[in-house]
Amino acid sequence: MVEIKEIPDSKSDLKKFVKFPIDNIYAGNQFYVPALILDEIDTLRRDKNPAFEFCESIYFMAFRNGEPVGRIAGIINHKVNDRSDVNSVRFGFIDFIDDAEVVDALMDAVIKWGKSKGAQQIVGPLGFTDMDNEGMLTDGFDQLSTMATIYNHPYYNDHMLRMGFEKDAEWVEFKIMVPDGIPEKHKRISDIISTKYEVRNIHFSSKKQLVARYGKQLFELINHAYDSLYGYSPLSPKQIEHYIKMYIPIVRLRDLSLIVDKNDELIGLGLAMPSISKALIATRGRLFPFGWIKLLKALKQRNEIVDLLLVAVRPDYQGKGVNSLLFTDLIPKFIESGYKMAETNPELFTNQKVQSQWQYFDTTLHKRRCSYKKNI
């Protein structure tokens, strides 16, 4: 028999929720990359995550004979529901053993809660906003995951289909071989675009100066660039302030490329980061007592893999080749850093504008993932 328990919003209780997949589902799995435990706890806490300005949530764990066998979060993003005019409850942070009784009980708990809030549809896996990981892995189970993506066993998808869910959106991910130099055609396009639109790359040697000049603009640009994408939840001013403090300190300035127009307004950005996947596996998501040392080494030592965390171009410059400036700027830095391969973040399968930017590179589509939906 499966027992479902609601998990209180406290640090100690949420720690058990967060550690469940690390200790119970993926122990010893060479492809699963755990989240940083403390970061994920803060994401789930109402007093820590500014997304709770417009979101509400509930957390459940499944137990059998007193042992944990699954977990799930129910999330309602009222901002997205208002924008889409669909009352949806999201499910996320979902992990479970290969057992129909367990996953059915978890999903039923979220559906019951969602219905009590007026939801007519359940969709996921999604987080509070697009800054959280989203999408269930459907292909690429033998590929190393990243800090910005979800890993799951193949049987997860089998249960989604068994329960009557249908695909709602699909994402693809690519491996991109770092070339020996800037592709000639790419360089030529970059030069033409720079002159035609009077745009240029800029660089900072100080994070303090970066924040003072473009801190807010970085995330406002993301809001503009991603606004029309699937399920996007625009970042609020409070969220922007939160993410400036959270992310800018760990950014390597040499792996950040910015593009401005003739008025020095930000119109494009590309952000990369040395892969810390293997370091996170080694630390099992723990910073203390010595996990932070391994993560710091992963950021500082030579690494053959770089994660392309995001590429964003202001809508009025999209489709004009402006993103070519990002890669003519970053490629020499990637070569100098010793990167051999870049890993993209998930890209919507229907977003041909994004995928077309890889046409001059040696790429391999190595992962797919999707979100599911069902009327309730």
Task: Provide an overview of this structure.
By secondary structure, the chain is α+β, with helices and mostly antiparallel strands. It contains twelve helices and 14 strands. Strands 1, 2, 3, 4, 5, 6, 7, 8, 9, 10, 11, 12, 13 and 14 form a 14-stranded mixed β-sheet that branches. A hairpin with a 2-residue loop joins strand 2 and strand 3. The model has no long low-confidence stretch (mean pLDDT about 90).
Mind sketching the topology for me?
Layout: E1 3-6, H1 11-25, H2 37-44, E2 55-64, E3 67-77, H3 78-84, E4 88-96, H4 100-116, E5 121-124, E6 136-139, H5 155-162, E7 166-177, H6 184-197, E8 200-202, H7 207-226, H8 237-247, E9 256-260, E10 266-274, H9 277-283, H10 291-300, E11 305-313, H11 324-337, E12 341-344, E13 347-348, H12 352-355, E14 363-375
Parallel strand pairs: 4-5, 11-12
Antiparallel strand pairs: 1-2, 2-3, 3-4, 5-14, 6-14, 7-12, 7-13, 7-14, 8-9, 9-10, 10-11
Helix pairs in contact: 1-2, 6-11, 7-8, 9-10
For this entry, give a set of tags:
376 residues, single chain, 12 helices, alpha+beta, 14-stranded mixed β-sheet, globular
Question: In brief, what are we looking at here?
Answer:
This protein has 376 residues and is α+β, with helices and mostly antiparallel strands.
